[in-house]
Fold:
Amino acid sequence: MKIFRLLIISCCSLLLLNSFAFAKEPKIETLDFFKYEKVNLKDAVTRGLVANPTIVAARAYYSAMNEQQKSTFSDFFPKADAQFGTAYSKEKSPMYDSNLYWNTSIVVSQPIFTGLALLSTHQKANLMKDIARIQIKNAELQLIGAIQSTFFSVLMAEMDVESKETSVKRFQAQLKTTKAFVQVGISPRVEVLDSEVTLAEAEQLLLVSKNNLATSRVQLNSLLNLPLTLNVDYDGKLEYTPIKLLFDNCLAVAYQSRPDIQIGEKSLGVAKKTILGAASKYYPTLSANYSYVNSDADFPGSSTNNNLPSQENQSVAINAEWNFFSSGSDFFAHRSALYDYDKVAAELNNTILNAGLEVKQAHLSLYAAADRISVAKKTVAAAEEAYRMQVARYKAQVSTNNDVIDALDRLNTSESNHITALGDYGKTLSALYVAMGRKNISLEIK
Structure:
């Protein structure tokens, strides 16, 4: 029948118009993380950028905004509605000589002018898609910073464990020497007790360091979406590589590259389009409609032919609508959008200020850590020499056991300060690149 042919043509037209909306998203290659015997910083960050749930969520949100943008674009094209039903009447129709009627209708509508509402909505969807894309970069930057910071925490904890183990061995050697002196009557018994107490304290600190190492490993496994109990061999070494980064250059890069600033600029565009959408309520709308209505006593497509006429009606209409009075709701909605624009603009200015502050803080912390490394390195060398001298003096009986213990405590403190300075240097270097909005996966000096 004519009605079913029209239905098929309408459905095919709609499918053709919307076929562009079903393009496949690119498939993300999964990193086979377990093939590595040792995992360096670059491997860890690469794994996190693939498997971390925050990145997966950001990509899913981008896909959702991409489909939303396509949905708003399809609103520019015609819409078709079809209805089919039946009705029963006690009295027979003089035309059909029947109590049962079958009604079919198709309405096709095409918006012509909507006061720029459709245009502003589509432009907002484009901007929201851009924001979602930038949010992926922002999530990646934050994740890179978190992984790199935790990776350095693991390396710091490993060095700290090695330092504490060496400290325990030194205290054990001093206890052995003290016991030998007590046995021959050179030193009093109390020196053995002092050495045993300091050895126990060193062993306690070693246990704390091992727990810190285990905790850091678990945190890094969590960021990489790995089993918490998986024993991964994270390979790396805390080293100091001099770097020269001018603050003005870092700040210029940050203003150009930081995703939060880019998101703020796009959000300002969204606020502009919201104002346009609110103002569209002041204008009339114009649309074109085509309708087809069929009423018949026979079920469509049946072989029954009662030679009864059917009622068909086709019409084309141009409709204009203008809501010229809304008791102020459209006016206040428009003013609300204007104030919202001012709010977003102020937030963007605040984001720019905070970006500059973050870059400055990271820049200062980086060079402060570099200075601390230089001082700590000299302190370690002096403390090692002082410890060796005190051990030699104690064996020559020209110094006391407490002098050796004090020298060993100072050596342990200087080593701990050196490890902390090296770790802080790596962390602040990572923080500086994040503050600049630059992804430096392996923290190569650029």
Remarks:
- The longest strand covers residues 100-113.
